[in-house]
Amino acid sequence: MNILITGGAGFIGSHLCDALLQQPEYRITVLDNLSLGRLDNIEHLIGTEPRFKFEEVDILDTPALERVFAEGRFDMVFHLAANSDIAISHTKPEVDLESTFRTTFQVLNMMRIHGVKRLAFASTSAIYGNPQNQKLTESFGPLLPVSHYGAGKLASEAFISSFVENYGIQAWIVRFPNVVGERATHGAIFDFIRKAQSESADLEVLGDGNQNKPYVYVKDLVQAVLFVWNNTSASINLFNLGVDSRTRVSKMAEIVLEELGSNKEIRYTGGAQGWVGDVPEFEYDLSKIHALGWKASLSSDEAVRKSVQEIIKLQGLVSKK
Asked: Which Pfam families does the record associate with it (predicted)?
């Protein structure tokens, strides 16, 4: 089976490459413009794994994308390419229009032109907006995103639905919560480690520290994506993926300091949100994915701690613990 992974040099995409290549029947092409992805994430595959190919291509470069699809003759597309830095698009809203939504339309249109009939799409909890004190099911609505990222992903889901109906494409839409683990390039854990290692006298935390969200370990998430793909067969297969526990941002900061053996004080900037577009608290209803037979191996707190440990190790930071 010939598989295309967009954003495959990124944090989650590179772990997906590793998981898929454990199966001998899969041949992988990674497409990434390296704006957020890193060659370091896939260098262990380039030139050493004959079933792996990397293309440094921007999805919005239509002629280049046309060539990749014409040469690849893909049976399946995992579309992960997007702007994954929610905070940055507040000042540059065009980032999510281009990198989150238009990339999806480009991929869908190439699938239509080249007769590729199967797509797995990395969506997000951000499409739900900020529904306070409500456990989120896949059928929750109305969907009112508060970030441009969430809006771009929701628009992408809408076009996937219309392409399924119009062109006979089969889709797996998986809505990610906060994903943590090694190879991350941004996010709260990444920022806290950087700040804890800086010369600053304290560890600054945006907001009041009471933000409370589920954090899933990246390898658990990848296994969930593949489990859904291999065990569902509707025209559109829609699932929340995650863990049935949550971690407060204050707890995350404490874990980072513990693992680094740092005695820095934590300083909160105040306010419920960490930034404009941040959803300070949410909780998934995971009944659907649990009924299918999958559950995360690590709790939210365990995922955070393991991620801190792995990032410290990979970045070669000095732990005082």
From this structure: Epimerase
Domains of the chain: 2-179+216-240 (3.40.50.720), 181-213+245-277+298-314 (3.90.25.10)
| pLDDT recorded at residue 96 | 96
Sign of CA dihedral 184, 187, 193, 198: positive
CA 192 to chain centre: 19
Percent of the chain residues topping a pLDDT of 90: 83
Q: How many helices (H) and strands (E) does the chain have?
A: 10, 15
Low-confidence ranges of the chain (pLDDT < 50): 318-321
Q: How far is CA 236 from CA 15, 21, 98, 173, in A?
A: 24, 25, 24, 7
* Residue with the two structure tokens 């190439």: 110
Nearest to 160 by CA among 103, 198, 214: 103
Q: What's the pLDDT at 132?
A: 82
Global pTM? 0.93
Q: What is the DSSP string of 100-112?
A: IIIHHHHHHHHHH
> What's the angle, vertex CA 122, arms to CA 40 and CA 64, rounded to 5?
65
Alpha helix ranges (H) inside 168-286: 188-196, 218-231, 249-260
Distance, CA of 181 to CA of 218 (rounded, Å): 5
Inter-helix orientation angle 188-196/300-314, to 10° = 50
Tokens of 83: 């702007």
